[in-house]
Amino acid sequence: MTASKKRIGIVGARGHTGAELIRLVAAHPALELTYVSSRELDGQRVDAHVAEYHGDLCYSSPAHEALPGLDADVVVLALPNGKASLCVEAFNAAGKDPVIVDLSADYRFDNQWYYGLPELTRGKWRGEKRISNPGCYATAIQLSVAPLKDVLAAPPVCFGVSGYSGAGTTPSDKNNPEKLRDNLMPYALTGHMHEKEASRHLGIPVEFMPHVAPHFRGLTVTTNLYLARSLKRDEVQARFQHAYGSEKLVHVLDEAPWVSQIAGKHHAEIGGFAMSTDGKRVVVVATLDNLLKGAATQAMQNINRAIGVDEYASIPV
Ligand SMILES: NC(=O)C1=CN([C@@H]2O[C@H](COP(=O)(O)OP(=O)(O)OC[C@H]3O[C@@H](n4cnc5c(N)ncnc54)[C@H](OP(=O)(O)O)[C@@H]3O)[C@@H](O)[C@H]2O)C=CC1
Ligand SMILES: CC(=O)N[C@@H](CCC(=O)OP(=O)(O)O)C(=O)O
Fold first, then answer.
1. Protein residue with its CA nearest to atom 7 in ligand 1
2. Domain ranges (residues) in the chain
3. Which Pfam family, giving just one, matches this sequence (predicted)?
């Protein structure tokens, strides 16, 4: 145990995103795991489930009221939607104010919380210690639309396909390998949470049609954008280069990226830029790993900024 390291607790650490966060923390020079919670794995050694972690820590199952007493400097909530507020209220009631990063959708519409999509909102952070981590598809959508936002003639239309790890570990049709075999499963074709989230944070309406596919991890979003004036492909690409050319975790490609290439990678890829002949329609393709840039890696960027270390600490870039 190193005194100078910040202590981090992960609530909901059995899940896919919790496991990825444990891996990132295990490689972190300035963080040490102080607790990882799971009801199902209570008492079991963490290294038995996450090989990258080396230490003696075991999963525990504290009640939410007990979390403030565990004295972490940083708390990540990796719980299903609707479960974060009990934990947040427990910290408020105890007068404890650690950095809290919520991976769920629960605070993405709350102005008291900083919405942490660093490549787009880095400049808006005012030292908030309550950080709402964006949704996976919502990240891909916003990265795809933002550079063209001022020149749109109509709401962007986004066709999304995710690997089934996006549906978490609670059994459902969307993470049932039998039902997904040879299938592409449409769901929430209007009004998906990430449609609302991306619309809110872009400040323009977007339309989003999600699907889940038989692969485990990685998502692709193909976005159709109608433009108010004719643009050349070079101009479109230049806008994306200007927005992301210096970003370590958003790579702008010429070709449309393939989802098969993004599993296990920490960055997002954006490319394609297929133009209609009149230059007033462009199709952009974005891929990212829903568990990494869509969740754990983005959370780690946000944590790093909040604790004042390099934004990319522990993230392979
Ligand atoms: N999967 C993804 O691609 C992404 C997920 N997210 C969001 O991140 C959060 C975590 O996702 P993910 O890791 O996939 O989820 P999982 O379903 O894989 O894991 C959820 C975790 O919460 C615990 N849990 C489940 N139900 C409850 C409950 N009722 N009360 C307390 N704990 C509970 C589980 O452990 P145990 O049951 O053992 O206590 C588990 O550790 C979700 O809000 C999700 O929407 C965000 C972006 C991408
Ligand atoms: C395939 C699949 O089911 N994906 C999830 C998105 C995962 C995610 O980012 O969820 P939150 O917004 O809840 O954090 C969904 O569509 O709800």
1. 104
2. 6-133+295-307, 136-290
3. Semialdhyde_dhC_1
Mutate to test the pocket of ligand 1, among 10, 14, 64 (most ligand atoms within 8 A of CB): 14
ipTM confidence score: 0.97
The whole-model pTM stands at: 0.97
285 alpha carbon – ligand 2 mean position (Å) = 19
- Testing ligand 2's pocket by substitution, the residue of 194, 195, 216 carrying the most ligand atoms inside 8 A of its CB is 194
- Cα 167 to ligand 1 centroid, rounded to whole Å: 9
Strand partners of residue 102: 77, 132
| pLDDT tens digits for range 32-66 | 999 999 999 999 999 999 999 999 999 999 999 99
Fold of 136-290: Dihydrodipicolinate Reductase; domain 2 (3.30.360)
120: Cα within 13 Å, side-chain hemisphere: 23
CATH class entry, domain 6-133+295-307: alpha beta
